[in-house]
Known about the structure:
By secondary structure, this protein is α+β, with helices and mostly antiparallel strands. It has helices at about 15-20, 60-65, 85-95, 130-145, 190-205, 210-220, 230-235, and strands spanning about 50-55, 70-75, 80-85, 100, 150-155, 160-165, 180-185, 220-225.
Amino acid sequence: MKPPTRGRRTAVAALITLALAAPVNAHAQEPQSHRSPTTIERTPNAIPRQYEVRDADNTAARTLIASTGAAVDEARRNSVVITARPEQLLRVHQLGYTTQKLAGPPKRGGAAPNVEAGDFPAEDAGYHNYHETLAEIDAAVGRHPDIMAKKVIGSSAEGRDIVAVKISDNIAKDEAEPEVLFTAHQHAREHLTVEMALYLIREFGDKYGTDDRITKAVDGREIWIVPDVNPDGGEYDITGGQYRSWRKNRQPHEGTNAVGTDLNRNWNYK
């Protein structure tokens, strides 16, 4: 869950909407005061948490902090926000920085009865997991086959289909029109982005022909929506009905024990 912005962001403004993804709950943990390296938990497989790092106000400082393995989430006027595991946080403290723990994922009452391996806590059951997302896509395409088509554009590291939905008034043709691409769920823990993509599919489909703006958008463009770029990471993040705050995908790295690539940052050079 991201804290309110109080300074300049380094992320592109167009991605801000897709970054606000964790389900909100009034019982989220309150920020904790600064902590010293001697009080950091050393719990195996601990869930990463967000921290504000004070006095990190330049590129060199952010680069040094990133070298600990912590993820730099946000740049503020005189600090940065990071996501770190206990051992990474310890390295940040060893560099001489002080940190403040920020509000964590929402507290939940536990997994629903008979919860599947990849399913949300009972309180967030309205969110779509991977299989529910595919069912929602199939239903939309079934309602609007004249303007919608589904295409599998790839496969994840764990063998899940990555699906795109094309929306156009001439669905079977590749027209010489402007093309628009929406992608969602690059970061695994940002589940709300999937819901926004499904919302767009419903809006374009259900309001075509009755809403002038939507009708003109569909008639004058080829629109592509990929609701789940990172299905493996998303399912892993809700394993057993509990949030893990996982950010990357689940791609193994050959020759190491490391798992996962950040699909929103680790782009090919140039």
